[in-house]
Amino acid sequence: MTTTHHLPAGKAAADVYAVDVTPESAGWGHSSLRVLELPAGGWHAFDTGDSEWIVLPLSGGCTVAVGGDTFRLAGRESVFSGVSDFAYVPRDAQVSIASRDGGRFALTGARCTRRLPARYGPASAVPVELRGTGSCSRQVNNFGAAGVFECDKLIAVEVITPGGNWSSFPPHRHDEHRPGEESELEEIYYFEFAPHEGTPGLGYQRVSPSGNGAHTDVLAEVRDGDVVLIPDGWHGPSMAVPGHDMYYLNVMAGPGTDRAWLICDHPDHAWIRDTWPERPVDPRLPLYTAPERS
After folding, report:
1. Considering its fold, how many domains does the chain have in total?
2. Distance of CA 87 to the CA centre of its chain
3. Which domain holds residue 228?
């Protein structure tokens, strides 16, 4: 079972980034993720190049300047405390990020062809979805989902799984282009965990071969700051150990002309969806909801 697709915290660090996954480093064509940590009063500038990006605060707030636009992101205390606002920046642009109080910021990216305008995404406009029931209950913050926020190629969402629950279940794939049925998308998982009385959390991520691509096969213990790369394969479950809520950020992009998240469930486990109407959603969810529109 290969471990080249599991990058423990620090392994994907480069230059100023705590995480720097590029198409070149991942060995694929489209998806990127950077995690930028800024001290109080810190700032960072970068060229977007041939990719579009969403700047998403994980903790803290920042100001994003691109072209003649400046977006002030209120951010949040942590990924477990609330939905965040965000900023979209286009390809072929110079961007600067500054933070008065410091923080940690995700840059979710995808190679693209269209140059869309820079935009602000308010936290109040982020759909918060409760998916699954029972021990499969999880919360999805669809800030950059297809059909929610316009991008050329990029799809990005956040998932929160209460301690003891499974998400990304039933296992599913999106590694083959089948019009109207399945999209071909590369995917990045970035993990954070809620501690318990100072003890760090952990979880487990499974990816099994689907018969397509490189036959990706992963069973990884994941902790704060870990990354799992999924070029192909059935992915799931993502398992949160009891007592520690699990967060992951999903970044997806692919070669298709249609920006869509179309998945195929693993045939051995697809039946689990039929049981969901019989069970209540985990009462711990939602962990939080989007703020009211002002």
Report:
1. 1
2. 15
3. 6-276
